[in-house]
Design brief:
about 375 residues, nine-stranded mixed sheet, binds iron/sulfur cluster
Length: about 375
Amino acid sequence: MTDARRHPAWARVSAAEWSDWRWQQRNRITSLAQLERLMTPTPAERRGIEARMESFPFAVTPYYFSLFGGPDCPVRRQALPHEDELVTTPWDLVDPLAEDEHSPVPILTHRYPDRALLYVTHHCAVYCRHCTRQRKVGDAASAPSKAMFEQAYAYLRATPAVKDVLVSGGDPLSLSDARLLDIVARLREIPSVEIIRLCTRNPVTLPMRITDALLAALRGYHPLFVNTHFNHPAECTPEAGAALERLADAGFAVGNQMVLLRGINDDPTVVETLNRWLVRHRCRPYYMLQCDPVSGTAHLRTPVDTGVEILDALRGRVSGLAIPQLVVDLPGGGGKVTLVPERQLRRDGNRRVFRNAFGGEFTYVDEPL
Ligand code: SF4
């Protein structure tokens, strides 16, 4: 981050400290008093902060804070509580994906036959206001115990159908290198585990966490995937781009899971700009997720049609590499379904008439030999 971009409060911080992820973690803004020394929150933000400190606190790294603009800024809106979080609808849920119901042992969710989700920490560099796991994250008292880890490893050893383990949380890169490496090494010892995915927002909120030392140590455990979570071009800084490049150089397959958020990224041009940047930095836009109906996010949710319209606008305009799958994760643990714009206009026997990306009509005769 250029000095011009860095918030003046940290102008005298040395470059070495600023680019040290531990310094960023130690200096996170986590209280209203700290925040008010740096900026003037709006009355709606102040009321949101006061009301949510117990149920879902906020935390922002100096790096991510330095990207803040005015009250409508897409970065600020993702990070600061707002009084709109107090508005609930009859469809809101605390655990919308029923992860706790599908949890055979305390820190593991096993819903699909070949995949399991392992929660290794409830700490994140920044607490995203749209987080599906806000029932858990930010609660330091709920950190998984050693015994819970052993139960999870035992479950995975006894369940060889699980080939793909998502290491999640919270943010697993909040852990020390040693702790994270121990978890990855223990998973790699399980012969049936083929793929390990690290689910982390650190490339977005704390890109200095992607250190050469960590990558060198993790290289021995491939195939490793990284699922990250960029939501807006305002997050696409040179530091974030460099973090993605380092991950790709170290052999990681990197994918992005964007969440559609009202007034933040529910616009085809925003999604196109974001996805073009991701592809340039060797990160595949993987999912565009409908925001889960978690309590406190009604003001951020978009109609499902919005995602379909964005996909429709992207098709033909950008490379397929930059077009994600639109996914709704069904409430109640129903799993993911994908949506696509309707292209088949009609069918007449073996003739199918389609609308292409530019509105033209074309016929495909379905008559294999
Ligand atoms: S980084 Fe992920 S787990 Fe942490 S608050 Fe954001 S969305 Fe939730």
